[in-house]
């Protein structure tokens, strides 16, 4: 991994560096990532010239968020093919890098299928690598388009549920441009509400332990000029009790066939609070996050991450050595990266294909019938 260049954080109105881009310098193709572990302090690009480097970037969350993981996985296959590595082996490594976001496997399988199909019809290695790259670029484009459609459907839903405007929206983790080929999922809806003059405030959960809310969502809100306020995750309850939340908007890492939603740990408690306080709990995700092969919430594999992410506060650089210990040495920590929200707590699932509400197995099956699945 090479730091290609670093620049001070983007200010309001400055175009951000792309979350990910394919590049073809004379030394050979590379996948260039905006290193999300360095935000918001600085914008640094990581150059991945091989699959193990990309796998490490995925595990350390330099690249993260379900849709972007899918895109990165697809480009990872293209990278392996372009450098003449064993594509099946590379695909297995990439798919296994993180277990919960279904998009990762989806993107990997799509690019690998395009490569195999080309090989099957007698293409030479270079042509087959080109087929994998075209598929990755196509997924990248589709995700950007999906993002735009989700923002459109999500804003219409907000207007229907909250006709008065002046929305006060609570969000968790990070779901903007940093996770997407476009403007994101839940964050794209908040952004659309802001552009339409209907967002009063975006409440941003800090999202312990890796602070995707404070490091990344607050950064994206600032870049886009959104009115936002940061809170600790455990302040959400009193915010609901004070009547300060009109809707919760979150993304998803996997939506099972019964409508159960896996998302960043801390999402489920928000769904419980939203139910108690009669506030809509809305999940925004592309259809590539829907996984009809996983029957229900209990069948979703939840990634367990190192306890050190909890026992040490790592500051602006998660995973970096030299964090500040906030627990006695030897403390054992429980650190699931995600939790599962059952469908009965979800008011609606917003996708690029439209809105599913109420959220039931039947509604999810109908959605899948309308969309492309690998
Ligand atoms: O562990 P992360 O940072 O990859 O988790 C990301 C999330 O949980 C997001 O909320 C989810 O991927 C939805 S983003 C569209």
TrEMBL record:
Enzyme category, top tier: isomerase
UniProt KW Acyltransferase keyword: no
This protein's record includes keyword Amino-acid biosynthesis: yes
Involved pathway(s): Amino-acid biosynthesis; L-methionine biosynthesis via salvage pathway; L-methionine from S-methyl-5-thio-alpha-D-ribose 1-phosphate: step 1/6
UniProt cross-references to SUPFAM superfamilies, sorted A to Z: NagB/RpiA/CoA transferase-like
Enzyme Commission number(s): 5.3.1.23
Residues forming the catalytic site: 253
Biased composition (Low complexity): 314-326
Residues marked Transition state stabilizer (site): 173
UniProt protein name: Methylthioribose-1-phosphate isomerase
Name of the gene this protein is made from: mtnA
């Amino acid at each position: 991994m090479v730091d290609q260049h670093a620049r001070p954080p983007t200010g309001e109105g400055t175009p951000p560096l792309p979350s990910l881009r394919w590049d073809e310098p004379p030394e050979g193709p590379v996948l260039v990532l905006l290193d999300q572990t360095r935000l918001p302090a600085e914008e640094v690009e990581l150059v991945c010239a091989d699959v193990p480097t990309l796998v490490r970037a995925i595990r350390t969350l330099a690249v993260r968020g379900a849709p972007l993981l899918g895109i990165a996985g697809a480009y990872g296959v293209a990278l392996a093919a372009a450098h003449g590595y064993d594509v099946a082996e590379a695909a297995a490594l990439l798919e296994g890098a993180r277990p919960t976001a279904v998009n990762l496997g989806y993107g990997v399988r799509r690019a690998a299928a395009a490569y195999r199909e080309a090989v099957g019809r007698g293409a030479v290695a270079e042509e087959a690598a080109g087929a994998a790259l075209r598929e990755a670029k196509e997924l990248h484009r589709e995700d950007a388009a999906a993002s735009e459609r989700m923002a459109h459907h999500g804003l219409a839903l907000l207007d229907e549920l909250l006709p008065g405007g002046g929305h006060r929206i609570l969000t968790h983790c990070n779901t903007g441009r940093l996770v997407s080929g476009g403007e994101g999922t839940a964050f794209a809806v908040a952004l659309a509400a802001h552009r339409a003059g209907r967002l009063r405030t975006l409440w941003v959960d800090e999202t312990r332990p890796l602070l995707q809310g404070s490091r990344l969502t607050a950064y994206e809100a600032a870049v886009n000029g959104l009115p936002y306020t940061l809170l600790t995750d455990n302040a959400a309850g009193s915010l609901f009790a004070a009547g300060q939340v009109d809707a919760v908007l979150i993304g998803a890492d996997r939506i099972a066939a019964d409508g159960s939603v896996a998302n960043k740990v801390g999402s489920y408690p928000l769904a419980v609070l939203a139910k108690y306080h009669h506030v809509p709990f809305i999940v925004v995700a592309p259809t590539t996050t829907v996984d009809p092969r996983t029957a229900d919430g209990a069948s979703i594999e939840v990634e367990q991450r190192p306890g050190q992410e909890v026992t040490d506060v790592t500051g602006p650089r998660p995973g970096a050595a030299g964090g500040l210990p906030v627990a006695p040495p030897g403390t054992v920590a429980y650190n699931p990266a995600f939790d599962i929200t059952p469908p009965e707590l979800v008011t609606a699932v917003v996708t690029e294909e439209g809105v599913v509400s109420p959220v039931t197995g039947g509604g999810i099956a109908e959605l899948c019938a309308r969309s492309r699945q690998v």
